[in-house]
Design goal:
The complex is a heterodimer.
Chain A: H1 2-7, H2 33-45, H3 50-76, H4 91-115, H5 125-146, H6 172-209, H7 212-222, H8 229-262, H9 274-300, H10 309-339, H11 343-354, H12 358-370, H13 378-381, H14 384-411, H15 426-449, H16 455-460
Chain B: E1 5-12, H1 15-27, E2 33-36, H2 44-48, H3 55-81, H4 94-121, H5 129-132, H6 136-139, E3 144-149, H7 157-166, E4 170-176
Antiparallel strand pairs in B: 1-3, 1-4, 2-3
Helix pairs in contact in B: 3-4
The chains are: A mainly alpha, B alpha+beta.
Chain lengths: 474, 177
């Protein structure tokens, strides 16, 4: 049969040339290697801009709210939060899931897009990974202080203690301890490995500039990196493996976070859709946050040649795709609640949309389902200001998603006699508001002292990095 | 130069130059030599005749160790050291032990990968002759170097210099050890 087909091929097929697919330009204006080095290092070596000090001051002020809230909590007790029966998880867990979710886009960009050989990730991965780490820091605050007597938080880990008791490994909450601490650790390691060659660049530049102290400090962390190709060979392999293990890690972390809910029996929580739905939501919120952070950074530092319109397009499209998955999940939850014919489940969902917390539900729907649909339009994706505003809506919507899931289900549990209405106390509001300051302080320190883009990786995606001269031969 | 020489270093301006020179040095039979590049050059491993990195083996060992650590820890704490029934559930089951073991697999793999990479590269390292070269700053920026070590059996100051010059190397200098 195959032979007959081949004989019957029209002669013209021999003349058909495969289409030339132009590669997306990742560094605009044919910039040279040293232009990249100067551009990125210039941010660190230049004088601290005035706006940086203003932002830093404001961020420290905002962060002090978390410090104040937590100090008051430690001095008084966890009762200063607005939790009461039946709502014993509220803003603390909402904020925890919110911040952890934001972190996920950083890992997605650095790991999953690395495996998929999406080279556009190179200019944004460093900042996105930093965002991950700082988001995990903010997330960790809430469960740790929610344990009440925080000085016993080490009970979470299997450390031999005088009570001769071990952790209950049957509990998803214990799984979460391992998931989040592994996630934090691996994110830091991945970030640091990526930084290694760039720290060596800074070491040598500060050495040449005669700044001994900074040269010493960057040199200390550069571990004597010298750009040897024998090293690069192992380095590239290690980086690939880290990307390979971070991918199942990031999927497992939010899966395990969703197990905190899904493994319980509460209507509205006890659903099998939770793991994929949480992961999609996490990536959606994370890309929202990446856009929120990178667009101002791009404008302030004039990084348009490195974060091109193509990069923004890609990020908007991922936001659109994951936002649509989230919207589908909302619809599917309702469908299953009806189709499953469980009256408690059905009630939980009707109550979400039309009960006391309906306002939160509709904020969630409008921010998460409607907002990303604007990204279908090229004109929207090319309007940076509009993209930034929409990304804020995504952040708000995803916070409300966690609020809706956690609070509506708890406030209306199986026993109507224990139903309640939860409102946050001022201490909770302070603590949460302050975490934006904590995050900003860390992020501002990062953009001041560390290269915000991976120079080595950026150089490797330029056309002149090709061994055959120009990237057209592949 | 009075100090014993570490070897010769030659400068190359572009990636294709470096790539072709690396092939020549490889074909000349040198073993103790290296390329210094500001970024990983795709395909240079082949031009240098390097074998595939063995980091994955170390990672695999780390992963297996992590998984076994998780399973053993959960069995030992819950089903051996202090047997405590919670919710009528079994004292040990690989099912509930899986998520934690999975996370520990990843954690140990990450440490093994980075530790293995650093170990194989001989890092951290306080001093290296290449880092003393006054142009090394450019090697971190936009220039490429080939270093041939004096301890290589084929190393001969005049011949090696000629090879590097013929391969297109510029500013061929001796490196102090």
């Amino acid at each position: 049969m195959a032979h007959a087909d081949q004989a019957a091929l029209p002669a013209i097929l021999g003349e058909v040339q495969p289409a030339v697919l132009p590669r997306a330009i990742l560094v605009d204006h044919h910039r040279s290697f040293s232009w990249i080095t100067e551009k990125i290092c210039g941010i660190i070596e230049g004088k601290t801009p005035v706006w940086w000090w203003w932002c830093f001051g404001v961020a420290c002020f905002v962060a002090s709210f978390t410090v104040a809230g937590i100090t008051y909590l430690i001095a008084t007790g966890v009762g200063v939060w607005g939790h009461a029966n039946p709502v014993n998880w509220a803003w603390d867990i909402v904020n925890f899931v919110f911040w952890i979710g934001i972190g996920h886009a950083g890992t997605l960009i650095s790991a999953i897009l690395c495996l998929l050989r999406q080279k556009w990730r190179t200019s944004i991965n460093r900042a996105a990974e930093a965002m991950t780490i700082f988001a995990v820091v903010c997330a960790g605050i809430f469960p740790v202080f929610h344990v009440g007597r925080v000085w016993y938080a080490w009970f979470l880990f299997p450390i031999p203690n005088s009570n001769y008791l071990w952790q209950n490994f049957r509990s998803p909450l214990e799984w979460d301890v391992f998931a989040v601490s592994t996630y934090g650790t691996v994110s830091v390691l991945f970030w640091y490995v990526g930084l290694l060659p760039d720290l060596a660049v800074l070491r040598d530049r500060f050495e040449a500039a005669g700044n001994k102290l900074r040269s010493f400090l960057y040199g200390l962390f550069a571990l004597g990196w010298r750009g040897s190709n024998r090293h690069w060979s192992n380095y590239e392999m290690a980086y690939l493996i880290l990307a390979g293990i971070s991918t199942p890690l990031v999927l497992s972390v939010h899966t395990i976070v969703s197990f905190d809910f899904a493994v319980s029996l509460l209507p509205g929580w006890h659903t099998t859709i939770f793991p994929p739905y949480f992961v999609a939501g996490a990536i959606f919120s994370g890309f929202g946050m990446v856009l929120t952070l990178m667009l101002p950074l791009r404008a302030v530092y004039k990084l348009e040649d490195l974060i091109t319109q193509y990069h923004i397009d890609c990020m908007c499209k991922i936001t659109l795709a994951t936002g649509t998955i989230v919207g589908y999940a909302y619809a599917m939850e309702f469908f299953i609640a009806w189709y499953g014919a469980n009256p408690y489940e059905g009630f939980a969902f009707i109550n979400r949309a039309f009960g006391h917390y309906a306002w939160a539900y509709w904020i969630m729907i409008s921010c998460n389902v409607i907002t990303p649909q604007f990204f279908w339009f090229k004109a929207v994706r090319e309007n940076t200001t509009l993209v930034w505003v929409l990304s804020i809506f995504v952040n708000v919507g995803m916070w409300f998603e966690r609020f809706v899931i956690i609070v509506t289900s708890l406030a209306r549990d199986f026993l109507p006699s224990s139903w309640g209405y939860y409102s946050p106390s001022i201490v909770e509001i302070f603590t949460f508001f302050g975490t934006f300051g904590v995050f900003s302080v860390l992020f501002l320190l990062f953009i001041r002292f560390l290269p915000i883009m991976p120079m080595a990786e950026l150089k490797a995606v330029t056309p002149q990095a090709d061994v055959h001269g120009g990237g057209d031969h592949h | 130069m009075a100090a014993p020489s570490y070897g010769l270093i030659a400068t190359f301006a572009t990636v294709p130059n470096l790539y072709q020179a690396a092939e020549k040095v490889r074909d000349a039979g040198y073993k103790h030599w290296d390329c210094i590049t500001p970024f990983p050059v795709h395909g240079l491993d082949k031009a240098m005749g390097l074998r595939r990195s063995i980091v994955p083996r170390i990672s695999l060992a780390g992963g297996i160790l992590g998984f076994c650590t998780g399973m053993t820890m959960i069995w030992w704490t819950g089903a051996y050291d202090y047997r405590l029934t919670v919710g009528g559930k079994p004292l040990f089951s690989p099912m509930f032990a899986f998520p934690v073991s999975y996370e520990l697999t990843i954690l140990f793999t990450a440490f093994a990968t980075i530790g293995g990479m650093l170990f194989l590269n001989g890092l951290p390292r306080h001093y290296h002759p290449v880092l003393k070269y006054d142009q090394i700053k450019r090697g971190m920026d936009d220039t490429f170097f080939i270093v041939i070590e004096a301890r290589d059996p084929r190393f001969n100051l005049a011949n090696t210099k000629a090879l590097l010059a013929q391969a297109g190397g510029q500013e061929i200098k001796e490196l102090e050890a």
